[in-house]
Amino acid sequence: MKIFEDFLKDKDMRLTHPRKIILQVFLQSTRHMEIEELHEQVRKADKDIGLSTVYRTMKLLIECGLAQENVFFKDKKCFERVHDRDHHDHLVCTRCKKVQEFHHPMIERFQEKTAEKHQFSIIYHRMTLFGIC
Questions:
Q1: Interacting residues of 104 by C-beta distance below 8 A, sequence separation 6+
Q2: Predicted pLDDT at 101
Q3: Where are the beta strands (DSSP E) in the chain?
Q4: Residues 79 and 90 occupy one common structural domain
Q5: What is the count of structural domains for the chain?
Q6: Res. 123: pLDDT tops 90
């Protein structure tokens, strides 16, 4: 919460009640959420918070490094927490749209060695495997 508050202060913005609710609901989530699903959860806490407020707040959360936006399907964006979480990659089922997280140290080492071989410095990476579960 402090990270977001400090981020907003630097932009001369306030942690309003709606932003606080959206932040709390989002940080409590343990999975990838589409914006409509997040909005639905937020409305359980405060029915007056609109979808556009959720969109704007998620944009700020991405900008401050607490959230990441993933586009696994053409018109479907989903969000996940990235702060205080270990790196992971994704398995995405093209049939049922299920998203699973995975981490494999050998894959990570291979990517690092490949980058080193090519005198390439990795800043970040995302790996998503699409298939059928």
A1: 89
A2: 86
A3: 33-34, 67-73, 76-81, 89-93, 99-102, 128-131
A4: no
A5: 2
A6: no
Quote the percentage of the chain above a pLDDT of 70. 98
User: Residues 4-17: pLDDT tens digits?
Assistant: 999 999 999 999 99
The half-sphere exposure of 119 on its side-chain side, counting CA atoms within 13 A, is 0
CATH of the domain at 52: 1.10.10.10
* Domain that includes residue 32, residue range: 1-83
Residue 118 DSSP label: T
Mean pLDDT confidence for 53-62: 97
pLDDT at position 76 is 76
Shared domain check, 69 and 90: no
Residues 6 or more apart whose Cβ sits within 8 Å of residue 40:
none
The pair of three-digit structure tokens given for residue 56, joined into one six-digit string: 């704007």
H helices of 11-72, in order, are 17-28, 35-45, 51-63
